[in-house]
Amino acid sequence: MEAPSHPFRDAFRNRDLKAMEDLLADDVSFHSPVISEPGFEGKKAVMALYRVVFDAITDDEFTHEYGDSSACVFVANGKVLGQPFKATNLVELDADGKVREIWVMARPLAAVAAIAEAIGSGLAAREGGASRGATRAASKPLRGMAALTDRVGGRIIGRLNRETA
């Protein structure tokens, strides 16, 4: 039998925008794995983000959940633009149990670049105009460089592991 999960996990897993919105404090902040600051500030901005995230993230599966009345940590695997990733979400709760802070960390770098492209272009599409195309154009080289870094770094680490085994 699966242990009960926090409603945040259920809302994400079910792509339930209404349930997600009900969980968020009015002054919630979301801190991206891509942009250092500013974070997304306020319920409306965070919900605009989740509308894009729910469309962009596929094959997500929560593997771990830890928490208490002040914070929860969720670990999940997923894909974005076909790129597999692992993400950790730290969800801090206020005294009423509402989500007040969300911190997302993701790996590998190639997946973070794919997240930047998918989420960035999705958010830019809300504005219309050239923003979406510009966001995609700026993200494509980043994804390529991250993929190259992953391949080269993997070879270097693989050799180091074999040499030190």
Supply the key terms.
165 residues, alpha+beta, Nuclear Transport Factor 2, Chain: A, six-stranded mixed sheet, 5 helices
User: Termini distance?
Assistant: 40 Å
Question: H/E series, N to C?
Answer: HHEEHEEEEHH
Q: How many helix segments? A: 5
Task: Please tell me how large the radius of gyration is.
Answer: 17 Å
Strand tally, please? 6
CATH first level: Alpha Beta
CATH architecture descriptor text: Roll
Please give a quick description of this structure.
The protein is α+β, with helices and mostly antiparallel strands. The chain is built from five helices and six strands; from the N terminus they run ααββαββββαα.
SSE diagram, text form:
Layout: H1 7-13, H2 17-23, E1 24-31, E2 40-41, H3 43-56, E3 57-67, E4 71-80, E5 83-93, E6 99-107, H4 109-127, H5 131-164
Parallel strand pairs: 1-6
Antiparallel strand pairs: 1-2, 3-4, 4-5, 5-6
Helix pairs in contact: 1-2, 3-4, 4-5
How does this structure look, described?
There is one protein chain. With 165 residues, the protein is of the alpha+beta class. The chain has one domain: Nuclear Transport Factor 2, Chain: A. Helix content is 49%, strand content 31%. It has helices at residues 7-13, 17-23, 43-56, 109-127, 131-164, and strands at residues 24-31, 40-41, 57-67, 71-80, 83-93, 99-107. Strands 2-1-6-5-4-3 form a 6-stranded mixed β-sheet. Helix 1 runs antiparallel to helix 2, helix 3 (43-56) crosses helix 4 and helix 4 runs antiparallel to helix 5 (131-164). The longest helix has 34 residues, at 131-164.
